Every structure is written in structure tokens, then in C-alpha cells.
Known about the structure:
Layout: H1 2-19, H2 23-28, H3 32-43, H4 45-61, H5 65-77, H6 82-95, E1 97-98, H7 103-109, E2 118-119, H8 122-126, H9 129-133
Antiparallel strand pairs: 1-2
Amino acid sequence: MVKEVYQVHQFVELSGALTDFNALALNGTGQVNDYLHTLTNIVGEEIVEQLLSTFSAVYEASADETMFINGIRQQILGDVKLGPVARNLIKLWYTGTWYQLPNSWREGFGKSEQDTTFFVSSASYTEGLLWQAIDANPSGAKGPGYGSWSQPPRINFNNAWQFKPSTKFR
């Protein structure tokens, strides 16, 4: 149980760093456990643990945000194994869709029968971060109310993720 809580916490922080949405916004979508479960089912527990431990190591070794961002770019997004997985995670959070990993990744690290392009759930579409980022409502869901289309979007983004030096994940 403690391991699961720790893993979810790491997953939320990694997702926040990759999407620039804070934990409150990510948890507010109700998708955290579904996305972690989807990721684990497709790439496997070992790669998920490698992704999360690399994130934690970069985070804890960084003295400031610039050092952290460079570490994420080099050790996660620039990594042959972790980079495509992290980019898929970003797309998943923004669109609610898991996109099939590139063939080069699948050939190098294993194919999963479940690695196809799909919506995780009907709620994942409506809870995609895309809608918050552009201050719009998903088509066919979460109606904004009569006459709201006559007003310009009010983009007031205050859900940004923040690097907090000296955070420890253990």
C-alpha cells in the first residue's frame, strides 16, 4: 500500500512537470489512477519504475529549476527508452488518448497487445488538459451555458506546476 501511494505521488509530480499542471489540477481530473494503470499495462512495471525513479533522481539532484529542466530533457525526454513513453504521457494528459508508441520503440523494447491508439475512458476525453489550457469546453460535453459563446475566452492559468528545491520522494 505504501509503495502504491509513493508511486502515485511520483506519477503526479512527473505528470505535473511534463504538462505544467499542478497536482491539484491533475487530481481534479479524476484520471490519475486510470492513466498510471494504462501506462503500466502498456509499457510494463519495470519501465514505469525506471521512468519514475529517473524523474525522482533528476528532481532531487537539481539545485534550481534550470538544472531540473535540463535534467528532464537529457535523462527522460532525450532517452531512447523513456522519451517516447514520456511524450505519450503528455499526449495522454492533454487529450485523454493513449497513442500507440512508435514502431522503433516497440521493436526495441517490446510490443504490448494493448499498445493501440484509444481513449482511456469517456471521461478522459472531457477531462483532457487541452480544454483547461485553451479555456474551452469539450465538444458535446460540459456545456458552458446559454450565451457564453458571445464572450471571449478568459484564459487565467493559475494551475502551473512548480519546481520545489529540496523535495524528497522517499
